[in-house]
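Re: [help] complex structure
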Amino acid sequence: MALSNAAAAVVASTRFGFAAKPGELDLIAHDPRGWALAQLRGAAAPLPGNLPPASRMVALMLEARRDKSADKKEFNTQMRDVYLAEIEARIRQAAQTDAPFTERLAHFWSNHFTVSAFRPFVRGFAVAFEREAIRPHVGARFADMLLAAESHPAMLLYLDNAESIGPDSIGGIRRGKGINENLGREILELHTLGVDGGYSQHDVEALARILTGWSIAQLQDSQAGSFRFWPQIHEPGPKVLLGRTYSEDGQREGERALRDLASHPATARHVAVKLARHFIADEPPHDDVERIAKVFRDTGGDLRAVHTAVVETKDIWDKPFAKYRTPDDLVVSACRVAGFTPEAPMLVQSLKNLDQMPFYAPSPAGWPDAAAAWVSPESVLKRAEWCGNFAARIPNPPDPAQLADAVLGEAMPAETLEAIQRAPSRRDGLALLFAAPEFQKR
Amino acid sequence: MRSCCATSRRGFLGLVAGGSFTFALAGLPGAVFAALPGERRFVVVLLRGALDGLAAVAPYADPRYAEKRGALALKPPGEAGGAIALDRNFALHPSLAALAPYYQRGEFLVVPAAGNGYQTRSHFDAQDLMETGLAAKHGESDGWLNRALVLLQKGDARLGLAVGGAVPLVLRGKVQVASWEPQGKTPPDSDLIAALKPIYARDQLLGPAFAEGLKAQSFAGAVLGDDSEMGKGMGFGPKAFAPLAAAAGKLLAADKGPRVAALDMGGWDTHVAQGAETGRLAQNLEGLAAGLDAMAQAMGPVWKNTVVVAVTEFGRTVAVNGNNGTDHGTASVLLVLGGAVKGGRVAGDWPGLANLQDNRDLRVATDSRRVMKGILRDHLGLDRRDLDARVFPDDAALAPFDGIIRA
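Output below.
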């Protein structure tokens, strides 16, 4: 019994958390499921430090855009510094928190609602998006998170809705401009129903029309850089989305449409597939997906219940190492285990080199969540090299074999443990631990 | 987050900012370095993984040498590709040829059969003791070189510099030291890649990709120690040391630069396919010699005030093992270089190969800490009582090794 609990603790700490900090495994072993479930009580903790709200950074961007002739150097420096501080705080938090499941969920949902600095102007407030729209809602309703995400200035700017104008609105008639359906499409395809969720091009356009006017408060506004609904550019009249008519109701029209999308059965299934892929397997069993989707439907998208259903998946507890860690996951987990988080430039450089620069996902679909996307001859070697370099930087390197035991216990194969013990130095032993397939997976 | 930089630091940076080396921002010494008495420099090179001292400096005249070393015995001096005679008893490995001129100029001293008397043959523990200078592990500890810096330190100026990744234990402790590393990634340790090969081979997901990656990048040659030109040209493993050592030399040569430095070189754990005149160990020795030479060149006129010690945690078995390699042993060799060294000779006793420790290892004839004590006293001017009480407190009775430094 004790042994199986120890094995389940490894599964809990890696599947739901990042990796056990020294000493944590014993704690989790008392009740691995309970340890995970206890973290589902509320929001993800805010990131420490004095990080600026997105609205302030958006306002700075508006200022920089207004004055076309001005030197952008200072603005770019500010954006970069905030980005680096945010990334360091985020990784440090994940590496140190006692609620790593909540933290992993925050990262998961942040990736689901991707805002990427692939469009560079987003860089200064991409992480603030996660702090403001995702973290507070990790234990709440999906609909609340959806509304927070789609109305956040970062999302409205990233997917162009801030400049989407109803052609028949006052502003549209005056300026001869029209809708931008980028956000409308990604909400349906990526955030809610999923690509096979049964919507048409007509629905994409309808949602885009419904969301016209969801934009940003301008500089003269005391709330500059925050969300603001602009009735002057909102497309007037009723719109038909997925066969349902939304009569003209300004901002509330969009809120109603999003709440309806949140409770759509296709959304339940789309979200269930993504959660199951992240926490169970790259190709999750159909039954698990259905079970999680059902909880989503039955509870009206109560994320605490949905996340609980994920933890209650039966046949994962004796199956460690089902998932290949993403580079971001590898870096966070190594920092957590080593009790050492490098400074931001080094973290970002590492992740850039490993092809997962934080908040630079190549598309609104976010980072892929399956091994096939991450395993390549070059990347496997690059990761091993990173492990060696990281191990060499740990200021007070602990005994590698003891650490391996504290992190993976019996789950570490004897051959690997032997190699770690035989390593010619502590740093080589730690490099082996991090590079071992059992640490490369979770 | 980062303190701002004085002009002097900028000038200091300029010295090595060229080429592929620039400063990692975070590791920069903010303080101005102060001068040591007489502008003396001291460098400790930590050869991690246990250098085979009998291969680096062969006791070719020992009557049991050829018999006991077997396939690892070097061709004697005078033969083509043979060892390079230092005196009538000892000869340098041919891959250390770059160090022979230093010996001829009297700037290179060899201390054979050196060690710290540590017996259990564990890399981690032995490296800890090599760096703490203590007789046993006492949990959290500081390094002997840092304790020496405490005695040398004046004000808040930083005298110590760690070159490479993290600050090694030998330099950790009360006194803050600066650290420097080349920007960008340092090449992976060939030991790491070699150790990962069998581990990854068992993994269905990562094994094939890893093997393919090795092939693609021609790591294999460098790792397995074959002499393929592709492997040699890649700049991995042994080749990585020289640029690091040259950078250390430049930094140490600077007027307001550090005075004491430590840097690592790995790749010495030659359990498999060690080789004799050529092979894996030969390549590593060549890299070491090239690095020490590059450091000396980079120091310029400052070299005359410099002592460099290359030290390893223990030696290796006298006999070859079943994989044409050697296993963990006891005594190894100390290499002491520098313009301030009274060199051109082999110093210390030779215990011989007839009477081995546990019937397998060369015995320790000279405690390495005696050599360090001699250098700290005669080169850096530390007081004997301080050395006994504070730098090597566990073994106060160890007498400093006399006559290492030129009068």
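Residues 188-233 of chain B form one domain.
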